[in-house]
Amino acid sequence: MFIGHWAPALAVAAKRNKPGLGTLFIAAQLIDWAFFGFLLIGVEHMRVSPGISAMNPMDLYSMPFTHSAVGALAWGAAFGLLVWLVLRDSAAAMLAALVVFSHWVFDLLVHVPDLTLAGNPPKFGFGLWNYPALEMPLEIGLTFGALWWYVRTRRPAMVRVIALSVVLLALQAINWFGPVAPEVTPGTSYLAFFAYGLATLAAWWMGKSAQNSAAAG
After folding, report:
1. How far apart (Å, rounded) are the C-alpha atoms in residues 173 and 160?
2. Segments forming the whole domain that contains residue 52
3. pLDDT of amino acid 215
4. DSSP string computed for 183-195
5. Residue 1: what pLDDT?
6. What is the DSSP code (8-state) at residue 62?
7. What is the DSSP letter of 42?
């Protein structure tokens, strides 16, 4: 899953002013931000393995610190603590932590078995990447259903909603239909950072125009 990971961020932001939407977008993909950082320095690993699934040729064969359930809980707790230190808002901190952990739950739906509970086998994954006719509408439906709810509740400027929608659709189209690199290189991580950063910037910009949730709802 790619843009679908941002659905929980949009859903939470629809009814909460804090954390902000930009912060929640970071939370939703924090596990992948960390993974691609670890990939750069050789702590976690993936390789191109055509045919490993119908939709994604990447073999994510070693990611114990980011894509284990224990690791995801730890990243969520750390991010939640950071939010609490900044905002002194326990509810906001808990919601941010849950958005971080939602990444592992959503990955469990789509990944072939490569997720762990604590870094070691057995590995888990329900494998919706092997069923594009299910995964594609699920991802689009989750993302834009949550965006619809956010827009309906918070009423941000429509030009900014359109901008975020275009960014998300473009990134997902590239992810699904773009050319696949023959091997994993440092550029793999840099491209991921660019994509996550662009989406987060667009979400932050949209969120800046949103109405206070109490007034809007």
Report:
1. 20
2. 3-211
3. 47
4. S--HHHHHHHHHH
5. 87
6. E
7. T
Nearest to 37 by CA among 168, 177, 189, 161: 189
Count CB-CB contacts under 10 A for residue 177.
7
Reported as a single tens digit per residue, the pLDDT across 119-133 is 999 999 999 999 999
Q: Model-level pTM?
A: 0.95
C-alpha atoms less than 13 angstroms from C-alpha of 39 in its C-beta half-sphere? 27
Burial, 111: exposed, middle or buried (Cβ in 10 Å; 0-12, 13-18, 19+)?
A: buried
User: Would 217 be classed as within a structural domain?
Assistant: no
User: CB within 8 A of 133, min separation 6: which ones?
Assistant: none
Query: How far is 114 from 106, CA to CA, in rounded Å?
Result: 13
Residue with the larger pLDDT of the pair 72 and 211: 72
* Cβ atoms of 112 and 129 closer than 8 Å: yes
For tokens 């997902």, what's the residue? 172
**What token pair was written down for 199?**
């989406």
Residue 216 lies in a domain: no
Tokens of 91: 């509810």
The two tokens of residue 115 are 């997720």
* 58 touches 46 (CB < 8 A): yes
Q: How far apart are alpha carbons 28 and 47 in whole angstroms?
A: 24
Asked if residue 202 is part of any domain, the answer here is yes
Angle at 123 between CA 24 and CA 194, to 5 degrees: 35
For residue 22, the one-letter residue type is G
